[in-house]
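Q: My labmate handed me this sequence with no annotations at all. I'd like to see what the chain might look like in three dimensions before we decide whether it's worth expressing. Could you predict it?
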Amino acid sequence: MSEKLWQLFKGDYRQNCLSWHHSPRNPVIPASGETWRSVWVANPDVIEFGGRQLLYYRGNGIQPGTDCKRHDRLGVAEIASVTRDNIELRDLNGGEPIVDVGAPGEFDDKDVLDPSAAVFGGKVFVYYSAIGSGPDCVGLAVSEDGVRFEKAGSLMEGRAPAVIVKDGYVYMIYQLLEENGYQLYLSRSRDGIRFEPVSDRPIFAGEPGSWDALSIVTAQLTQDGGAYYLMYGGSSYLADEPDFFGLARSTDLLHWERHPGNPIFGCGAMGQEDGGAIWFPALIETEDFFAILYEGSRGKYSWDISSQICMATIAKA
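A: Here is what I predict for the chain of 317 residues:
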């Protein structure tokens, strides 16, 4: 499906960004309730498993019976339907978190966020950014049914994992901070737990003088035939406040070709729910259009961060 998306875009980034239909109902998945997802919802990731389309996401709020502090936690819902303006979900696990923060002193005792799910060995492996004691790292939780998870621990330093299964390996692209911005690295694992670097150099970094010159963040991976596609946030001025998404493709996950019309998607209009910054694009294909779910904020970190899940669509040619 990603090759079809690639072919929709031309060489003019303005035309490409304007070709998307931002839902007038954004945010299509707003913060809700009074507990763990009352402040933010963000970081959408979509997989097919067990005959269902599952959405993994981050919520932020205060969970009763815990330490009475705000934390990021992970949840899951089933996607019931997608239209050009909206998405319908069914909460799973009773609407409660599926991956919670760890106990004080653990590697993920502050926040768990940025889920990336893969079906491996008949199970669902959810990799996530773990913020807590020690350096930022990638954690893992594993499930037999895609809903009830057990943690497997901390795997490596890094943030915002994006995983895909290739030739019996789990390949993970993740970001590391280099000077003032993030660059992407690649590792792989035979068992989904013990990872080894594929390269000791970044596999994807910003282009000097371009829209993504400083930082590449929250990349998402898809596959179409023998090619792999990367949709990612980029910024020329801050490490983690992108206002555009780019598209790149590869046959080996190491060497990447940028789309000549990058960036292919941008923030909404000023004042809209996605008008300040965007992260974490998750691609969904329907019969008539492509949709992306993404984290959007109406303002900036410095004055009105308001992360919630937004949606935009583009008609198939």
